[in-house]
Design brief:
Strand order of the largest sheet: 1-3-2-4-6-5
Radius of gyration: 15 Å
Number of domains: 1
Structural class: alpha/beta
Helix content: 40-55%
CATH topology: Uracil-DNA Glycosylase, subunit E
GO molecular function: 4 iron, 4 sulfur cluster binding; deaminated base DNA N-glycosylase activity; metal ion binding
Pfam family, one: UDG
Strand content: 5-15%
Shape: globular
CATH superfamily: Uracil-DNA glycosylase-like domain
Bound molecules: uracil
Organism: Ethanoligenens harbinense (strain DSM 18485 / JCM 12961 / CGMCC 1.5033 / YUAN-3)
CATH class: Alpha Beta
Family: Belongs to the uracil-DNA glycosylase (UDG) superfamily. Type 4 (UDGa) family.
Protein name: Type-4 uracil-DNA glycosylase
Number of helices: 9
Distance between the termini: 32 Å
Largest sheet: 6 strands, mixed
Order of helices and strands: HHEEHHEHEHHEEHH
Length: 189
């Protein structure tokens, strides 16, 4: 695996490790600060992300941005990536074999970034990275220590668009994130 960001990004953008490569418009590698102490990990690109080549730029992404702003966090100071880098057809959940094929890219990104905090955005990322039996509706907002990294799963903004009554619960997760950043991060606002 390449050990610099630029080489990693170039290699990832040429990936054909699973069937998702056939239908993609673009690989959605990830965006944000390569100095970030906080890494957000979603599930996979949707239509807008596939077209723009950037994570969380569609409706769910706009809600994510609003929630970050609401707790005083600057999207450009965090790093955002996904479990799979290519859009699953009709936005279906990425298959376990697609997640496994893509995971080495995310692991390499995580190694380069060395974040203090990882936020799993939604059930798929939470189950893959934190706890295979994660019950997102019950366990979102809880902190888990994994090695040197603190991890939390939060409700996916796409789920919040479908169930707006869950927004206050998700907002609490973002407030807890803000407090944790103040406690343990050195250069994240
Ligand atoms: N949903 C995700 O999980 N990731 C994106 O990049 C966009 C929507």
């Amino acid at each position: 695996m390449p050990e610099s960001w630029d080489e990693l990004e170039a290699a990832c953008k040429a990936c054909t490790a699973c069937g998702l490569a056939e239908k993609r418009t673009q690989v959605v590698f990830g965006t944000g600060s390569r100095e970030a102490e906080v890494l957000f990990i979603g599930e996979g690109p949707g239509q807008q992300e596939d077209l723009k080549g950037e994570p969380f730029v569609g409706r769910a992404g706009q809600l994510l941005d609003k929630m970050l702003v609401a707790v005083g966090l600057d999207r450009s100071k965090i790093y955002i990536a996904n479990i799979v880098k290519c859009r699953p057809p009709q936005n279906r959940d990425p298959l376990p074999e697609e997640q496994d094929a893509c995971l080495p890219w995310l692991r390499a990104q995580t190694k380069l970034l060395a974040p203090k905090i990882i936020i799993c955005v939604g059930r798929i990322a939470g189950m893959k990275l934190m706890k295979p039996d994660l019950k997102i509706t019950r366990e979102h907002g809880q902190w888990f220590q994994r090695g040197h990294v603190l991890m939390m799963a939060t409700l996916h903004p796409a789920a919040l668009l479908r169930n707006p009554n869950q927004k206050p619960e998700a907002f609490k997760d973002f407030l807890a994130l803000r407090d944790k950043i103040k406690e343990i991060c050195t250069h994240t606002p």
